């Protein structure tokens, strides 16, 4: 399995007005949003980000699902999947690419792409999963989610793949609509366990070059 490495080529900066600034000497892309002064940075997560990612991951998971399932099940999932050791392992896993979004130096969202085949029940051959993508509510509606999805698409293509799949809770209509607007379509479903609760996720497939 190929590990995603940082590009050695200079990266251009794209602004909301569509203009390009001179290349940067790293793969970090800075997008200046005209609606607020804070600088938005999307970068690859590193080992030293484990503690921050653990806190943000837990907070954003609660933000998404609080009140929609029993608290005991939600907290059990958070404790198991967003503890420090688990996040450190994911950041060091060559089959996982973690992208962090920072606003004014604070992590406000993240995405993870991993090498993981689509459920066989779909009858499709897709090897890469958009595993997680979360964003603070206060940062939604500003184009940051689209930016993060675009960078995730680049991560998929860096693994020499064009297609990507994801699982989204069937009751998360806002997320489903967002993915559909960016070219994803429903290809099947899968079960997703959170504590004692069994949920139904829609399996969606999209082209990494389309978003």
Task: Compile the SSE list and pairings.
Elements lengths: L10 E4 L5 E5 L4 E4 L6 E6 L5 H16 L5 H11 L2 H9 L3 E8 L2 E10 L12 E8 L8 H15 L4 E7 L3 H9 L3 E10 L2 E11 L4
Antiparallel strand pairs: 1-2, 3-4, 4-5, 5-6, 6-7, 8-10, 9-10
Helix pairs in contact: 1-2, 1-3
Walk me through what this model shows:
The protein has 211 residues and is an alpha+beta fold. The protein has a single domain (11-210), classed as Gcn5-related N-acetyltransferase (GNAT) (Aminopeptidase). The protein contains five helices and ten strands, in the order E-E-E-E-H-H-H-E-E-E-H-E-H-E-E. A five-stranded antiparallel β-sheet has the order 3-4-5-6-7, sandwiched between helices. A three-stranded antiparallel β-sheet has the order 8-10-9. A two-stranded antiparallel sheet has the order 1-2. Strand 5 (96-103) and strand 6 form a beta hairpin. Helix 1 crosses helix 3 (84-92). The radius of gyration is 17 Å and the shape is globular. Residues 1-27 and 29-37 have low confidence and may be disordered.
**Rg from C-alpha positions?**
17 Å
CATH topology description = Aminopeptidase
Oligomer: single chain
Give the N-to-C terminal Cα separation: 24 Å
Number of strands: 10
> Which residues sit in consecutive blocks of at least 5 with pLDDT less than 50?
1-27, 29-37
Work out the helicity level.
25-40%
Order of helices and strands: EEEEHHHEEEHEHEE
pLDDT averaged over residues: 84
Strand order of the largest sheet: 3-4-5-6-7
Which sheet architecture does the biggest sheet show?
Answer: 5 strands, antiparallel
Overall geometric form: globular
- CATH-level-4 superfamily name: Gcn5-related N-acetyltransferase (GNAT)
Strand content: 25-35%
Number of spatially distinct domains? 1
Task: Please identify the structural class as seen in this structure.
Answer: alpha+beta
CATH class bucket: Alpha Beta
Query: What would CATH call the architecture?
Result: 3-Layer(aba) Sandwich
Helix segment count?
5
């Amino acid at each position: 399995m190929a590990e995603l490495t940082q590009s050695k080529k200079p990266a251009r900066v794209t602004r909301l007005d569509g203009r390009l600034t001179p290349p940067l000497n790293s793969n970090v892309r800075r997008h200046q949003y005209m609606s607020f002064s804070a600088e938005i940075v999307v970068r690859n997560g590193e080992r030293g980000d484990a503690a921050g990612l653990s806190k943000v991951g837990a907070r954003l998971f609660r933000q998404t699902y609080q009140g929609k399932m029993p608290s005991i099940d939600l907290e059990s999932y958070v404790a198991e999947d967003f503890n420090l050791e688990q996040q450190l392992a994911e950041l060091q896993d060559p089959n996982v690419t973690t992208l962090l979004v920072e606003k004014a130096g604070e992590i406000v969202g993240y995405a993870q792409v991993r090498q993981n085949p689509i459920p066989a029940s779909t009858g499709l051959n897709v090897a890469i999963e958009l595993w997680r993508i979360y964003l603070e509510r206060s940062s939604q509606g500003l184009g940051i989610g689209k930016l993060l999805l675009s960078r995730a698409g680049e991560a998929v293509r860096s693994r020499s793949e064009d297609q990507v799949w994801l699982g989204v809770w069937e009751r998360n209509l806002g997320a489903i609509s967002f993915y559909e607007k960016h070219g994803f379509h429903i290809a099947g479903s899968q079960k997703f366990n959170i504590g004692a609760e069994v949920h139904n996720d829609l399996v969606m497939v999209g082209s990494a070059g389309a978003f």
